[in-house]
Amino acid sequence: MQRIIDRLGPNGPYFMLALTCLLGWGFKAHCGAGWTGAEQYTSGCYSDAVPFWGLRGVAAGQVPYLEARMEYPVLTGALIWIEGLVARVVGGRGADAADFLNAVTLGNAILAYVILEFFRDAGVGLRRQYAWALSPPLILYLGHNWDLLAGSFAVAALLAARRNEDVKATALAALGGAAKLFPVLMLPLLGLGAVFRAGRSWAHRLTQAALLVGVAVATWGLVNAPVAAVAFENWSEFYAFSGARSGTAASIWELMAQFGWWTTDIPTRNLWSFVMLAGGAAAIVALGWRRHGERPWLLFMPVLAWFLLTNKVYSPQFDLWLWPLIVLTGTRVRPIVLFLLGDIAAYFAEFWMFAGMEGAWPSATQADILAAAIVRGAAMLWLIVAAIRDPAPAWTFTPPRAAPRPEDRPTPAG
Questions:
Q1: Percentage of residues of the chain with pLDDT beyond 70
Q2: Average of pLDDT values for 363-368?
Q3: Radius of gyration of the chain from Cα atoms?
Q4: Which of 389, 387, 408, 383 is nearest to 122 (CA)?
Q5: Cα distances (angstroms) measured from residue 263 to each of 118, 247, 254, 271
Q6: SS (H, E, C) the chain
């Protein structure tokens, strides 16, 4: 492996990411603008871009929230509109869902390169750069949805916090929350870091924490308030939709219900998923504080992993939220590999179950989804424990743009 990295040189990740993006485009685009015979499930080429083209006014050029329904936060809605515009310009009068899928894939490929550039600017070692450039989740999800926009904000926020730019990190995390909510999980960590920062008076700490709260509220509000003011019902659909959803096939709540372990209604799931998230996140922070208290942003990855495990919705592409953070801060090879195996297995198990419902083959059952979820969940718990116990990766101690230390790699320890 090291010999290949040396031969490709420092620009190798750029070329490998291009290959990965090409594979990701081919994985989704081979089905074209229409699906027949449940091929979107049997081959895994399903993409949210295809139904969105006609069902959310993208084909007609309708403005999200103002003219069309949109179950995503405003920055993602804006990205969808821009990509729809690109599809209509490129495709002309004959533009169809395939053109939109291509535009979505291109947009995500650009964001994948943005994240890679963030890695390189931060002095992240080549092994981690290659882990991002050659990541299987990018192949699975590059043309699937719009998760990489929020993912880019999350990575940028984490790296800003690493440079002790807490105000910038807070603003970036809040912007990520205006794309998809998960980056806001970093905000409490930044606040705690301000409150418990050594060497400063309590008055200064509390003032800094209050400043971060104000920055988060103001940043999120500046993006959302104009849309909410003129189209509140459509703007609030994301939040109403999230609260009303019952769950997805691979979530712990749906699995417990399907196998008769604990059947819950939606309000109960909402309550207990929040209780489990809050309790588990508090435990992660408390246990990890001794090692990482001076840099609590390192606990963002395990907190996000716990959120995914306890949330009532765990769509397959949510793994792409976690993956860049695993690449950045993961310390052990084995759980990382196990997570990738579980991700791939869960993806195909879920879509093949849908294929079986339509009488197509290959098909899968809820038991197959359970097996995949157990593999993935075990890997995530392993990653959480490792993040709490292990020293931070070596690159986090080097100044940005500095040459990475030779030991900057996940350790093979179990």
A1: 94
A2: 96
A3: 21
A4: 408
A5: 43, 12, 8, 14
A6: CHHHHHHHCCCHHHHHHHHHHHHHHHHHHCCCCCCCCCHHHHCCCCCCHHHHHHHCCCCCCCCECCCECCCCCHHHHHHHHHHHHHHHHHHHHHCCHHHHHHHHHHHHHHHHHHHHHHHHHCCCCHHHHHHHHCCHHHHHHCCCCCHHHHHHHHHHHHHHHHCCCHHHHHHHHHHHHCCCCHHHHHHHHHHHHHHCCCCCCHHHHHHHHHHHHHHHHHHHHHHHHHHHHHCHHHHCHHHHHHHHCCCCCCCHHHHHHHCCCCCCCHHHHHHHHHHHHHHHHHHHHHHHHHHHCCCHHHHHHHHHHHHHHHCCCCCHHHHHHHHHHHHHHCCEHHHHHHHHHHHHHHHHHHHHHHHHHCCCCCCCCHHHHHHHHHHHHHHHHHHHHHHHHCCCCHHHHCCCCCCCCCCCCCECCC
Q: Tell me: pLDDT of 222 over 70.
A: yes
| pLDDT of amino acid 199 | 83
Mean of pLDDT values over 358-374: 96
Residues whose CB falls within 8 Å of the CB of residue 135, separated by 6 or more in sequence, listed in order:
20, 323, 327, 340
Residue 287 and residue 192: Cα distance in Å, rounded?
A: 14
Reported as a pLDDT band with limits 50, 70 and 90, residue 5 is low
Residues 6+ apart with CB under 8 A from 31: 39, 40, 43, 45
Amino acid at 191: G
Q: Are 383 and 326 in contact (CB under 8 A)?
A: yes
